Amino acid sequence: MGLDRSEVAKLLGLAASLDQRTVGVADVFAWQAALEGVTFGECEAAIIAHAKAAREPVRPADILVAVRDHRRRRAERTAIPHRPTDRATAAAAAKHGMADVYAEMGWTYNAQRAAAMTVPCPLVGCWAPVGRPCRKYGNRYQDMHHERHTKAATKGVRR
Ligand SMILES: [Zn+2]
């Protein structure tokens, strides 16, 4: 999968409008060669995200890293619910810690989620205990409640 030259030219045009670079034909060829295995939409999103977060002009490596990270996060979000839960396996693995639970269940390890699991959820009505995921409460459920992530992060700082 590769981008065609008109797509690459559009991406360079976007980058140029954000960082005032000058763009030549050689840039189009170089970017086309570098941007392998990514879609136009992914590149466009990565360029805009880069412009919001960094002062340096965006380079193909920035785009490739951003796309790879985005794909990994998306895979982590979708990987968890697709596997049926084997309670006995999960319970046995829970004795070893969350990293092992994820390994045992074939889930993608997510450090932030695992950290949140080490504290009980402080959200009124959820109060999920240590080692258990958050409960759906109203329409505020997002896998782990935001308050719990905050609590886990604060606990880490105090340690
Ligand atoms: Zn919760």
From TrEMBL:
<dbReference type="InterPro" id="IPR056911">
    <property type="entry name" value="Phage_Znf_bind_put"/>
</dbReference>
<protein>
    <recommendedName>
        <fullName>DNA-binding phage zinc finger domain-containing protein</fullName>
    </recommendedName>
</protein>
<dbReference type="Pfam" id="PF24623">
    <property type="entry name" value="Phage_zn_bind_8"/>
</dbReference>
<feature type="domain" description="DNA-binding phage zinc finger">
    <location>
        <begin position="113"/>
        <end position="153"/>
    </location>
</feature>
